[in-house]
Amino acid sequence: MTESAVKLRSTVPVLPVSDIAEARTFYADKLGFTVEFEAGDYIGVARDEALLHLDGVDNAGAGMVTCRVEADGVDDLYAELEPAGVIDPEEPIRTTPWGARQFSVRDCCGNRLTFVRSA
């Protein structure tokens, strides 16, 4: 069997948002992301190694996306974000049956971000 030159690197989720200005503020002020670039109704936000793109052009799917973000210090992140009132009450911090430690937030457009430390 020959070795393939193909190697997938990383993924960048694109989250549809209904209001790009509101989403920009939410990700910066509530979740601690910084804006990496802006191109009209399309922006990139980052925190540490996590990069997300927010797309306000086609809003048909806003609020319907789930994005999992691998995170170290997930309990500390929960403690940081909980006072901001962004934790999804249906998915507070917990350890899953498969050993992952995780919690979710809902962004201002209803998309779910699950921060997880894998088992």
Explained architecture:
Helix content is 16%, strand content 33%. By secondary structure, it is an alpha/beta fold. It has one domain (14-117): 2,3-Dihydroxybiphenyl 1,2-Dioxygenase, domain 1, CATH 3.10.180.10. A 4-stranded mixed sheet has the order 1-4-3-2, covered by helices on one side. It has a 4-stranded mixed sheet with strand order 5-8-7-6, covered by helices on one side.
Average pLDDT:
92
CATH architecture: Roll
Q: Helix coverage percent of residues?
A: 10-25%
Can you identify the CATH superfamily? 2,3-Dihydroxybiphenyl 1,2-Dioxygenase, domain 1
- Summing up helix and strand content along with how strands pair, one would put the structural category as alpha/beta
Largest sheet: 4 strands, mixed
Task: Provide the low-confidence segments as ranges.
Answer: none
* Count of strand segments: 8
Order of helices and strands: EHEEEEHEEE
Q: Determine and state the CATH class.
A: Alpha Beta
Q: How large, in whole angstroms, is the Cα Rg? A: 15 Å
What is the general shape? globular
Strand order of the largest sheet: 1-4-3-2
Return the CATH topology. 2,3-Dihydroxybiphenyl 1,2-Dioxygenase, domain 1
- The number of helices is 2
Distance N to C terminus: 32 Å
Number of domains: 1
Short description:
The chain is α/β, with parallel strands linked by helices and 119 residues long.
Write the layout of secondary structure elements.
Blueprint (H helix, E strand, L loop, with lengths): L13 E3 L3 H11 L3 E5 L3 E6 L2 E6 L10 E5 L3 H8 L12 E2 L5 E6 L5 E6 L2
Parallel strand pairs: 1-4, 5-8
Antiparallel strand pairs: 2-3, 3-4, 6-7, 7-8
